[in-house]
Design goal:
279 residues; six-stranded antiparallel sheet
Length: 279
């Protein structure tokens, strides 16, 4: 694999074994950084403009200098082109943008931010999935609520908890006991034919696939208790790599099959997304 490594103002491709980031980079020492993960198709990265818009919003929320999106676009094109054969046309692109070299502590230095882009092959998800709720909460009043920060230790712990219970994804409530999000997904429920998902005020990430489901299929935002997962007619989760992913088990509750609306949206998203690589 070839990785694009540099700074906000430029960089280039290197072999993975030669990729280097300074150990004093604030992204390494205190997870002072943001990132995006995009699906890579045979036509290129999907929804790149939306992801770059969110990358910028996350950087601004942390007080980082805005990324130079022209540099990021060129880097994305270079790293995808260099690794197309290894990905076999399908994979994921990770864009990481950090505070750069800084003192050992929370204070940020005045270095130019670090920019790294890497890709990996990506196996398709199974047709349906399972989730588990976890005993920890999202803080909807946090300074980084809704920010796609590189500080992911909380998600690592939650996902491990879910995996230990045979689930592929962990789902968290917020401090008010409301349904919030998964560790890397947004959550939707179907109640009496209505497709609902928590509003951004819940503390959830403004997911790109979530955004497209709201725009394309008329889903609605609604504040929901975490207990809705036990009562909803259907549940599905969304992410840039999962698209629309029907849930057939949530904790101890099981559905014999994926719900009809979830399956309809899964198929509809799969048909519409290839029509426009950058919707």
């Amino acid at each position: 694999m070839r990785i694009w490594v540099g700074r906000r103002d430029g960089g280039g491709l290197v072999d993975a074994a030669e990729a280097r980031v300074n150990v004093l980079d604030h992204g390494f020492t205190v997870a002072d950084g943001v990132f995006e993960t995009l699906k890579v198709t045979p036509d290129g990265p999907f929804a790149l403009t939306r992801h770059l818009r969110r990358l910028t919003a996350s950087a601004c929320a942390l007080g980082l200098v805005e990324p130079d999106l022209d540099v990021v676009r060129v880097a994305a094109g270079e790293v995808v082109a260099a690794n197309t054969e290894a990905m076999a046309g399908h994979g994921r692109l990770r864009i990481t943008y950090t505070g750069g070299i800084a003192p050992l502590g929370s204070d940020r230095g005045d270095a130019v931010p670090t920019l790294v882009l890497a890709v990996a092959s990506s196996a398709p998800w199974p047709p349906t999935t399972t989730i588990a709720t976890v005993p920890w909460t999202r803080n909807e009043r946090s300074a980084v609520a809704g920010v796609k920060s590189t500080s992911y230790a909380e998600n690592v712990v939650a996902l491990q908890f879910a995996h230990q219970r045979g689930a592929s994804e962990a789902v968290l409530a917020n401090t008010r006991g409301e349904l919030c999000e998964g560790t890397g997904t947004n959550v939707f429920v179907v109640i009496d034919g209505q497709v609902l998902t928590p509003p951004l005020s819940s503390g959830c990430l403004a997911g790109i696939t979530r955004e497209l489901v709201l725009e394309w299929f008329g889903a609605s935002e609604e504040t929901l208790p975490i207990g809705v997962l036990s009562d909803a007619d259907e549940v599905f989760i969304t992410s840039s790599t999962r698209n629309v992913h029907p849930v057939v088990r949530s904790d101890d509750r099981e559905w014999a099959t994926a719900g009809p609306i979830s399956l309809e949206l899964q198929a509809a998203f799969g048909e519409r997304a290839p029509l426009d690589i950058d919707p």
